[in-house]
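Researcher: Re-running this chain for the archive, since the previous output was lost when a drive failed. Same request as before.
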Amino acid sequence: RAGSVADARRLLDAAGDTERFAPLVALLTIGDEPPPETPTAVRASLAYLLSVVAIEAGDEARADDLLRVALEIDPAHPLAANDLGYRMADRGENLDEAERLLELAFERRPGDANIADSLGWLRYKRGVLRDETGPDGVVRRGAVELLRQAVSLEGGAENPVILDHLGDALWAAGEPEQARVFWGEAVDMAQRELLQ
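Model: Regenerated structure tokens:
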């Protein structure tokens, strides 16, 4: 059928011609993401952008398939890893794979508020609210600290979803007063956005 993942794969195969497709992908690149430079990066970014279109169209299954295609092309694509990992965590599906994807994205882009939020949300879903030290001495960051970090990063304090996630984690961690503060900020910000 038209618009299938198979059609997307054919488009991505054609996108190996970096000179033809790189300007299009650069034009469509989201936020401050640097434009891709290699044929692999162009193809992975194009698959990622197609997943964004699928999400906006409400086609959740196709979006997940396209994120997987982006990760087949570039297994370390931080935005595709983040989006797929977050979507899986939010649905409570295959949390081990979601965690692997989100840790990869966070490792690649620790200064990205959305990625720190995603990993923090996964840890919240898993009940890891506070930092934990494993038997090997490695610290596994908990939801509260990751979500506090997300709020402190550029754009994090202006994102009502991130503020809401931090409120949820604080409540679960036994800090109801702080939770109410962040929930209140999230509601106020969301209301302002709706009025714009």
